[in-house]
């Protein structure tokens, strides 16, 4: 038996209400360019809208003019989607709550997640949306996942409850030391003062 190796999220498709509600939210609130539209090839009564969440991948929405927006919280039953999180820069994160509240949107947070900060709010159809802002940048040639797995191992080795900035800083230092070469024979910490 062999695995099928994924290489990233291709797209996420959500059930929307009418077309304009989707455009107004995904592009008009979250700034995702509306890049493509065609009929839903499995249900021609629906339209299929495509938005770029900022990394060139896609968020797609099935819309139908006969469906109305329902703001009640979407199901959190087993097997349901709890929330979708989008990465934002620190500059955008610090402005996000005020910009959402200016639209009358209820915002929860910011919440300290140790390795990131989060804000939560619902879309017009009751889906919980998270805006997440990492507290670190991975070293050149590394991914966020590289830093997270190393920080997790450091946290577990130290018996700490959750990942904190000290674990991230130590993970980044270890990744740089193991992946980037140096002419120095001793790369340990020094005090030149």
From TrEMBL:
GO terms for molecular function: dioxygenase activity. It comes from the Bacteria. Residues 8-134 form the VOC domain. Keywords: Dioxygenase, Oxidoreductase. The keyword Oxidoreductase applies. SUPFAM superfamilies: Glyoxalase/Bleomycin resistance protein/Dihydroxybiphenyl dioxygenase. InterPro entries: Extradiol_RC_dioxygenase (IPR052537), Glyas_Bleomycin-R_OHBP_Dase (IPR029068), Glyas_Fos-R_dOase_dom (IPR004360), VOC_core (IPR037523). Pfam families: Glyoxalase. The keyword Oxidoreductase applies. PANTHER family: RING-CLEAVING DIOXYGENASE MHQA-RELATED, RING-CLEAVING DIOXYGENASE MHQE-RELATED. This is Catechol 2,3-dioxygenase.
